[in-house]
Amino acid sequence: MRARLVALQADDLPVHGGRTLAYVYDAGLAEVDALAREAVAAFAGSNGLDPTAFPSLLAMENDLVAFARGLVDGPDTMVGTLTSGGTESCLLAVQGARDARPEVTAPSMVVPETVHAAFHKAAHYFGVRAVVVPVGPDHRADAAAMAAAIDESTVLVVASAPSYAHGVVDPITEIAAAAAARGVRCHVDACIGGWVLPWAARLGRPVPAWTFAVEGVTSISTDLHKYAYAPKGASLLLHRTPQLRRPQYFAHAGWPGYTMLNATLQSTRSGGPVAGAWATVQAIGDDGYLDLTRRALEATDRICAGIRDLDGLALVAVPDSTLVAAFADGPLDVFTVCDEMAQRGWFVQPQLSYDARPPSLHLAVSAATDPAGFLAALQESVAAAVAAGPVPVDAGVVELLRTLDPATLGDAEFDLLLAAGGLAGDDGALGLPERMAPVNALLDAAPPRLREAVLVAFLDRLARPSPASSAPSIAGDA
Q1: Which of 9, 80, 125, 423 could form a disulfide with 65 if both were Cys (CB 3.0 to 4.6 A apart)?
Q2: Alpha-carbon distance 56 to 47, whole Å?
Q3: Which residues belong to the signal peptide in this entry (predicted)?
Q4: What is the location of CATH 3.90.1150.10 in the chain?
Q5: More confident position, 394 or 301
């Protein structure tokens, strides 16, 4: 069985080494990683459903919230909840804001167009209309436009610290003030920056205001499994006061069973992520995070300088944290660059075009990332992409894609689209091709709704067991 587990993991992206620049975050601290795994295993069977039954989990969660208080300028009244990840933290921020205003029958929230997709997921789940406001040319939220979009239906205003796509912090002071003036909650999504920006400020770097020190900020989300380098999945949703958190809770006694009481979207939740996060934060500590942040930011600076000096690529924005986005500045296909980087052992995330913005490549730089090695691979990859030329996409196919309505397409049509995009073979078998540039180029040509529908169809077909498969034997190698 252990051999089978190793074999299953063989095609996964590496989680250590600093070369996977999305999805995982590597501190490069093997001893801390080993300690965290031991903690996860020791508490994997504990259940966070009832803190009176497992008080150890409550104690660790309170310790994590107390540690975070010093990072976000939290008042003594600040409270927090440990969730499964940034998306759940964002969902709860929206749900709590909605339920705090039951008199608003058609609630809405004001968000910049760069807000994380998790908030659109929350809008879909909770019936809160997302009022999307265009950002300025610097990719930061337009505070005046955000203020103008607030009306009687608004229950929440959201800003990012930083935005995922471009790595810049929104003007939170102005946005929070506008929300407060209308009596509306303001949430700061610092899922990816909340464990970097505090130490960046201590290192003397310019950091725009984003914490509870900003009047009007009512809640903040920050992920522990990103730049706190804890195991998946652990995030914190922090509220300025207990009164602001209270609508987040769900309780139900109107049935014959136990009275259900939940602080999160989950009921039963393993204590493993709580213990893993607690052990990681305790082991690294304030001084350790200061050093890890210094290393990650220095690597980010070197990578940005290298991109500036490289013909063919340009920065989308000067990053406020550790997120870097770059687009083609000339005859270069960024999707091919991503493929070439993968060939050299580096995973960089492609971002498709949006509105008038071109496609880009995206990096989340960790403390373990080697900037010299990255830039050497990037230089080679850009040269290879220039030599290869643009990925051809038939103009007739592009025109067809623009006319398709996903709502009218059936399984047969989606099968044809998956085959045309290189996500299925002639026999219908699904899988990712060795090179993703042709797939990404075709997706990039499709309208967003069609992209969504095609990828949903692909995931739906991937997540089906083979009809000929059977349950694996557990009597083999243990």
Answers
A1: 80
A2: 10
A3: none
A4: 285-388
A5: 301
List, in sequence order, every residue forming a beta bridge with 221; answer none if it has no partner. 189, 237
Residue 320 near residue 169 (C-beta atoms within 8 A): yes
Residue intervals of the chain classified under CATH 3.40.640.10 are 30-283
DSSP string, 235-264: EEEEESSHHHHGGG-EEE--SSS--EEESS
Which residue has 């920006």 as its token pair? 197
Give domain 30-283's CATH number out of 3.40.640.10, 3.40.50.300, 3.40.50.720, 3.40.50.2300: 3.40.640.10
State yes or no: pLDDT of 470 exceeds 70.
Answer: no
> Is the whole model's pTM more than 0.85, yes or no?
yes
Q: Mean pLDDT throughout 97-109? A: 97
Here the tokens at position 362 are: 């995206």
Q: Which of 71, 60, 14 is nearest to 293 (CA)?
A: 71
**Angle 419-421-427 from CA coordinates, rounded to 5°:** 20
Give the residue-averaged pLDDT of 303-313: 95
**Dist. CA 196–CA 165, nearest whole Å:** 17
